[in-house]
Amino acid sequence: MHCTKCGAENGPTELYCFQCGNPLPTESLSESQQLIVQKNTNYYGKCFSALRRGKKFSWNWAAFLGFGLWAAYRKMWAVSLLWLVALQGAFFFQALWLTSLLMLLGGLFGNKLYYRKVRCTVKDIAAQPQKARQAQLARRGGVSIGAAVLVGVLLLLLCLWWAFFFRGMPALVAVRG
Ligand SMILES: [Zn+2]
Fold first, then answer.
1. Cα–ligand 1 centroid distance for 23 (angstroms)
2. Residues 60-87: pLDDT tens digits?
3. Which residues contact 22 (CB under 8 A, 6 or more apart)?
4. DSSP string for residues in 123-172
5. Phi, then psi, of 134 in degrees rounded to 5
6. DSSP letter assigned to residue 13
7. Domain residue ranges in the chain
8. In 3D, which of 97, 98, 63 has the Cα closest to residue 79?
9. How far apart are CA 76 and CA 96, in angstroms?
10. How far is the CA of 116 from the centre of ligand 1 (A)?
11. What is the CA(5)–ligand 1 centre distance, in A?
């Protein structure tokens, strides 16, 4: 396999280029998929290839621990927003089981969702005229630390809000048990 940085030919099992040390693309992630994933391409190469081989789940710790943040980091805006909303339901009912369930689902299905997003993006970008591709790629590919931070801050504010909400309603909490 050729190094994407210096072009040197490396063995199929190498993870880093022997010449320049650049991380090598895994064989399972296509060139256009790499352009979209950008970070942790080796990890996602393995996950995607496992899913492609018919594995039902592919566990993702980041998606388990902070699904909405991870989804935003991977530019899955709608999914991230949905998670935030669902979490508010869990907070409202003070349902620890629902929070745990949401975390579990995130860990189990995060990679699957991301794999779907990457494939869709590859297809959409390929359908664009050549000169629009770069802009599309910049918008939809890669990762966004800023978006993850934003979701994190939003979550923190919502947690604070719920804390005040429940403190202001001790009677209701008492009734709920
Ligand atoms: Zn190289």
1. 8
2. 999 999 999 999 999 999 999 999 999 9
3. 3, 4, 5, 6, 16
4. HHHHHS-HHHHHHHHHHHSS--HHHHHHHHHHHHHHHHHHHHHHHT-HHH
5. -60, -45
6. T
7. 1-29+43-54, 56-110+143-176
8. 63
9. 25
10. 30
11. 5
b (16+ CB within 10 A) / e for 108-117: bbbbbbbbeb
Which tokens sit at 116? 């779907």
Contact 1, 25 (CB under 8 A): yes
pLDDT of 10 reads 82
Confidence band of 16 (pLDDT split at 50, 70, 90): confident
CA distance 3 to 9: 6
Sequence-separated (6 or more) residues with CB below 8 Å from residue 168: none
Ligand 1 center–CA 66 separation, angstroms: 34
The reported pTM is 0.77
